């Protein structure tokens, strides 16, 4: 690990020396050396996490493993003839076969526990004095023993441990970058092994800044090696695999009744944003179709069911866990809304069928009126509110009350009503039900996130109702109305509770008044009643 402490000139000389050794040894012997380095590293790391060790020895061991990663990367670089401009010599078939076998042996070790899952940050719940928890939320037995042996000193030893873990994980990613440059487009054979772990480490939630930067560089290198122009394309084309991994992980958490990793929420957000971005680009592209295929929406719906199963089985959740869960709900709601918009655009035969911006807000007029009536301070037993709603209903009716609504004569379009948006509507209703339940939490950030997600869900259902109305007339079913009937009581109850708490805050007691105000009041009452 002396590479970490060498100056620039000395480091360059040392690297050139390693490159010469690699060229002298050959590809096969260097592959054996690299495999041996990672085998020793994995064995030492597993043994250290299983035993109670001192903090200084632990940091020294991590720096030693980081040095082994740097040495392996430089050996690989010297074997493949990588220059500073990232150009590599054309490898022979035998060398490429050796490196491919080495990648199959080394890559699973790199992304496995405990090397890859070493915590790099301390996550503390805001507003609480709870003990800091590493990235994965729950510690393994060996990690708990390790942290329990730490002693408080001038510098927090836990911070030193997180920094040494960040150095180790960043060194592992540096080796993966070198391997990607060496294999070129053949790295896509190993994407099922390394793609999701890299994406999880690239998320800003629960990862050190240097680890995020190294993971982003690795993903960018993989994208360029395969031939993609950016990381978004790489994630969108591997959407099926990534969603399957997340669903399996959520199912495991639900069965074992364990907490969800915070980085998993960031991974969900990044994956769904990538497919939304690709879908928006594909809608305007000619002969490319829509990226929101029915299979993609169904897979996200299945991932949502796994997430809801994990949420329903949790006996206790902290505010931080609930906040992360709502962020995942929000990302899925945005994905479903984009899927609905893509379906509407692709099934619009002419420009007149496209829904204007103001048309989607038609279903919110009654909600706005009810919210205004609630905030105006009407009493619960006041009949004026009912009169206003009666007047509203009277104004909304344009024709006679007994006149039946117009029915579309084309029966072939009415048959599609039960099949369109078959995945989006149940998913949005499930998200709305959980968010209305989570409104009861006292944390203001949780309430704000829930309200934003509920508003997004209502807006998506309003889009569907307006689209069906354009196609089939007034007789078409609108999924927004049943959702309002089911979830609006919970929202109004939350608003009444917030209003009551706000009124109670405005009522100040004598102890809350300033000393000057108390003195002025005592002087007005007279000298006999003034306090000495």
Descriptive report:
- The chain has 532 residues and is mostly helical.
- 67% of the residues lie in helices and 0% in strands.
- The chain is built from 20 helices and no strands.
- It has helices at residues 8-25, 27-50, 55-80, 93-110, 141-148, 157-183, 191-202, 209-226, 231-237, 239-256, 262-283, 294-312, 319-346, 365-375, 384-396, 411-414, 424-438, 444-472, 480-506, 515-525.
- Helix 6 (157-183) runs parallel beside helix 8 (209-226), helix 12 packs antiparallel against helix 13 and helix 17 (424-438) runs antiparallel to helix 18 (444-472).
- The N and C termini lie far apart (74 Å).
- Residues 51-56, 124-156, 283-291, 350-355, 375-386, 396-401, 407-411 and 527-532 have low confidence and may be disordered.
Poorly predicted parts: 51-56, 124-156, 283-291, 350-355, 375-386, 396-401, 407-411, 527-532
Specify the structural class. mainly alpha
Instruction: Give the overall form.
Output: elongated
The number of strands is 0
Beta strand %: under 5%
Looking at how many chains there are and whether they match, the oligomeric state comes to single chain
Give the N-terminus to C-terminus distance in angstroms. 74 Å
Please tally the helical runs, counting DSSP H or I stretches of 4 or more residues: 20
Sheet with the most strands, sense and barrel status:
none
- Rg calculated over all Cα atoms: 30 Å
Mean pLDDT: 75
What share of residues is helical?
Answer: 55-70%
Order of helices and strands: HHHHHHHHHHHHHHHHHHHH
């Amino acid at each position: 690990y002396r590479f970490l402490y060498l100056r620039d000139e000395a480091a360059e000389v040392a690297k050139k020396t390693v490159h010469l050794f690699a060229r002298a040894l050959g590809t096969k012997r260097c592959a054996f050396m690299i495999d041996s380095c990672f085998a020793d590293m994995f064995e030492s790391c597993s043994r250290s996490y299983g035993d109670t060790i001192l903090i200084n020895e632990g940091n020294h061991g991590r720096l030693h493993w980081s040095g082994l990663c740097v040495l392996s990367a430089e050996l690989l670089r010297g074997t493949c003839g990588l220059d500073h401009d990232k150009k590599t010599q054309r490898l022979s078939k035998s060398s490429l076969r050796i490196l491919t076998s080495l990648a199959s042996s080394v890559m699973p070790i790199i992304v496995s526990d405990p090397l890859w899952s070493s915590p790099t940050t301390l996550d503390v719940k805001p507003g609480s004095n709870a003990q800091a928890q590493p990235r994965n939320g729950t510690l393994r037995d060996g990690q708990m023993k390790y942290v329990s042996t730490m002693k408080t000193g001038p510098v927090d030893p836990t911070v030193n441990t997180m920094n040494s873990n960040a150095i180790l994980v960043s060194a592992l990613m540096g080796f993966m970058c070198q391997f990607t440059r060496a294999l070129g487009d053949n790295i896509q054979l190993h994407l099922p092994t390394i793609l999701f772990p890299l994406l999880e480490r690239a998320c800003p939630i629960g990862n050190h800044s240097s680890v995020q930067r190294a993971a982003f560089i690795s993903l960018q290198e993989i994208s360029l090696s395969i031939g993609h122009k950016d990381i978004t394309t790489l994630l969108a084309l591997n959407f099926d695999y990534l969603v399957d991994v997340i669903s399996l992980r959520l199912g495991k958490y639900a069965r074992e009744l364990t907490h969800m990793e915070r980085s998993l929420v960031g991974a969900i957000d990044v994956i769904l944003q990538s497919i939304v971005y690709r879908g928006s680009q594909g809608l305007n592209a000619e002969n490319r179709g829509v990226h929101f295929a029915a299979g993609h929406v169904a897979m996200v719906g299945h991932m949502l069911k796994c997430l809801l199963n994990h949420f329903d089985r949790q006996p206790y959740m902290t505010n931080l866990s609930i906040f992360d869960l709502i962020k995942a709900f929000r990302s899925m709601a945005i994905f479903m809304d984009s899927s609905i918009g893509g379906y509407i655009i692709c099934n619009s035969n002419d420009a007149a069928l496209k829904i204007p911006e103001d048309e989607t807000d038609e279903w919110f007029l009654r909600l706005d009126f009810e919210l205004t009536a609630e905030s105006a301070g009407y009493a619960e037993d006041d009949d004026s509110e009912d009169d206003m709603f009666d007047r509203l209903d009277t104004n909304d009716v344009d024709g006679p009350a007994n006149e039946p609504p117009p029915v579309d004569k084309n029966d072939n379009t009415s048959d599609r009503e039960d099949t369109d948006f078959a995945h989006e509507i149940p998913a949005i209703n499930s998200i709305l039900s959980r968010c209305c339940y989570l409104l009861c939490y006292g944390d203001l950030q949780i309430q704000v996130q829930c309200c934003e997600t509920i508003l997004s869900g209502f807006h998506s259902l309003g889009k569907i109702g307006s689209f069906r109305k354009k196609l089939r007339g007034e007789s078409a079913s609108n999924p927004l109305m049943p959702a309002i009937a089911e979830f609006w009581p919970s929202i109004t109850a939350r608003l009444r509770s917030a209003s009551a708490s706000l009124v109670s805050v405005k009522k100040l007691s004598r102890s809350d008044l300033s000393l000057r105000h108390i003195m002025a009041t005592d002087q007005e009452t007279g000298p006999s009643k003034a306090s000495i």
